[in-house]
Design a protein that fits this description.
The structure holds two protein chains of two kinds.
Chain A: H1 9-19, E1 36-47, E2 50-61, E3 65-69, H2 76-80, E4 93-101, E5 104-105, H3 113-119, E6 120-123, H4 134-144, H5 151-161, H6 165-168, H7 181-194, E7 199-203, H8 211-224, E8 229-233, H9 237-243, E9 246-254, E10 262-271, H10 272-277, H11 282-288
Helix pairs in contact in A: 4-7, 5-7, 7-8
Chain B: H1 7-16, H2 21-56, H3 62-66, H4 79-110, H5 115-127, H6 132-146, H7 153-178, H8 181-189, H9 194-223, H10 226-231, H11 253-262, H12 266-298
Helix pairs in contact in B: 2-12, 4-7, 4-9, 4-11, 5-7, 6-7, 7-9, 8-9, 9-12, 11-12
Classes of the chains: A alpha/beta, B mainly alpha.
């Protein structure tokens, strides 16, 4: 489903002006031609008899940041939780279609969600550190996954990668709750990278943070991109434009006239630059230009 | 904003701001009744404690703790009752705590949502309301005779464990449920198995609440007389009942107090009994303050 194109230079300037969203780095960083980490085919997720997201087909490429955007109720959070099988925790959730992870069917027989989650980490909407010390938050993952590790070393390395080390190096035994919200979220990122995952899922990681903390997380994402494939759900279009290589736009459709139940559908998936400067679908254009709702 | 209000309306509205006198008195009366309702229990308890303390405290001396029961009132003591009670507590806690916590974890974290689970849950709550003497009879039938533990410390502590198990389970479930879902999700997302997340994150986070509930349940058990009487507590016992002799016969503080009260001599009936009650109350208050301390110290805002 990749519709990567070479951008037509002359058409660009007015388009950027029109959307009013700056696409900063898409030009500097040509997207990789990396292999597909995830391949999603005809994926439908339902809660009971209500579909939440319908017929999604797309590929997530190695080493890229993929942003999932769209209005509330479009199923982006449901969708991102398919990649580490967090939807398994909801008894009524049913997944149809296929997601392969490096070619292996993620929902195939005998696939252990615990093993999946060891490779596909996740950062949640609200920072959710464990009620323990900063160091214990980092070492929990390595401990339960049975890694052989040196605690001091893994704590320092993870916190450095999450750009938190300098702020907490002298209080590693303090409660994680003593940190600010932005620091807590970076701790959660540090915790996720401590198990050295392949992919990191971020479900609106900045929605509970102020703009400065948000900026730091965004900078961090760019650094993490060198090692990890990142998928991020965001409500913030500027954020998608700033950090992501590719963007998928989902829309919420009303199921029927009688009830107000909504389900999501993938409208357009392309290089972030194209989504914001030169969208193919009028619904995408309406959304990114703010004409939506 | 910006819309002018006619002056008349404003004046009228201001007049309504004042409370009519009649409503004021009514409110006062109600407030007093509510206050009285709050105070009545505390006052009665206070009077009781003071009168018991006046009778009992002068009787308390060191030999009261170190002597066994004696038929001479000035030489009698509560040594066997106190050691019996402490042994009962240790044994009861070591049976009921692991079982109760295990049941609470299972019901909250692992039990499938089905009819059997619903049935289990409903019955755990029901068991909390069963009269204690019934647990005593059950203990007598099962532990004393069927399992042939005899009228022993072990049989009594097992009966008391059954008695407080529902309370521990309910308290445990509540504190486990209070641990936010985000903690579980965070643990699972890092590749923890459900058991690892439950045992290493959820349980430690819930532990202060569980301990508080357990201590309060134990302090209920410590004052129970009926079940251990039915199981066969002895009135007198010329030996220390320590937990490492669980098949020994035993007595306990409430039993000894009962025995003092039944005596016709006033030195027993009033002085020794009151002194025993004071000791029992002090033990109870100590346990309850430990529970409160624990709760305040570790209470968490999520």
């Amino acid at each position: 489903m990749d519709r990567a194109r070479t951008a037509a230079a002359p058409a660009e300037a007015p388009a950027a002006h029109r959307t009013g969203v700056a696409v900063e780095h898409a030009e500097q960083r040509p997207p990789s031609d990396g292999e597909a980490v995830f391949a999603v085919r005809d994926l439908t997720v339902s809660y009971g008899s209500n579909p939440a997201i319908v017929d999604v087909t797309m590929e997530i490429r190695r080493g890229e940041i993929t942003a999932l955007i769209g209005p509330s109720g479009c199923g982006k959070s449901t969708f991102i939780r398919c990649f580490n099988r967090m939807n398994d925790l909801i008894p009524t959730a049913r997944v149809r279609g296929e997601i392969t992870y490096h070619g292996v069917d993620l929902y195939g027989k005998g696939v252990d969600p615990v093993e999946v989650r060891r490779r596909v980490g996740m950062v949640f909407q609200k920072p959710n550190p464990f009620p323990k010390s900063i160091a214990d938050n980092i070492t929990f993952g390595p401990k339960v996954t049975g890694m052989k590790f040196d605690p001091d070393e893994i704590v320092e390395r993870s916190l450095k990668r999450a750009a938190l080390w300098d702020e907490v190096r002298n209080k590693l035994d303090d409660s994680a709750y003593s940190l600010s919200g932005g620091q807590q979220q970076r701790l959660c990122i540090a915790r996720a990278i401590a198990v050295d995952p392949d992919v990191i899922l971020m479900d609106e990681p900045c929605s509970a943070l102020d703009p400065i903390a948000t900026g730091r997380i965004e900078d961090l994402m760019r650094e993490l991109q060198e090692r990890y494939t990142i998928i991020i759900v965001t409500h913030n279009m500027q954020q998608a434009a700033r950090v992501s290589d590719r963007t998928a736009f989902f829309t919420a459709e009303v199921e029927s006239e009688e009830n107000d139940h909504r389900f999501g559908r993938l409208v357009e998936y392309d290089l972030t630059e194209n989504i914001f400067k030169n969208p193919q679908d009028s619904r995408t254009e309406d959304y990114v230009t703010g004409r939506f709702g | 904003m910006g819309v002018a209000t006619p002056e008349r309306t404003v004046r009228k509205a201001l007049g309504e701001l004042q409370r009519p006198a009649e409503r004021k008195t009514k409110e006062r009366v109600f407030r007093f009744l509510l206050f009285a309702a709050t105070v009545v229990g505390v006052v009665v308890l206070g009077v009781l404690i003071v009168s018991v303390a006046i009778d009992g405290v002068p009787r308390i001396n060191s030999t009261f703790f170190t002597n066994y029961y004696s038929r001479f009132p000035e030489r009698t003591g509560i040594r066997s009752g106190l050691t019996g009670t402490l042994s009962l507590m240790v044994l009861t806690a070591s049976f009921s705590f692991p079982i109760g916590v295990g049941a609470a974890i299972y019901l909250e974290e692992f039990a499938p949502k089905n009819r059997l689970t619903d049935l289990l849950e409903a019955n755990v709550s029901n068991l909390a309301g069963v009269p204690s003497v019934v647990y005593g009879l059950l203990g007598a039938a099962v532990f004393v005779y069927l399992l042939d533990f005899g009228r022993s410390l072990l049989a009594a502590s097992l009966a008391l464990s059954l008695l407080i198990l529902p309370v521990i389970i309910v308290a445990g479930r509540e504190s486990i449920r209070a641990v936010p879902q985000a903690i579980r999700q965070g643990g699972l997302a890092l590749g923890g198995t459900p058991w690892q997340v439950a045992s290493r994150q959820v349980l430690p986070a819930a532990m202060p609440g569980i301990l508080t509930g357990t201590i309060l349940a134990l302090s209920r058990a410590i004052g129970e007389t009926a079940p251990i009487l039915v199981v066969g507590a002895a009135f007198t016992r010329r030996a220390d009942n320590v937990p490492w002799e669980p098949l020994d016969s035993f007595t306990a503080l409430p039993i000894q107090i009962f025995q003092f009260v039944s005596n016709f001599q006033e030195e027993f009936r009033v002085d020794a009994a009151s002194a025993g009650i004071v000791v029992l109350l002090v033990v109870l208050l100590l346990m309850n303050s430990a529970a409160i301390l624990l709760r305040n110290r570790y209470s968490r805002r999520w």
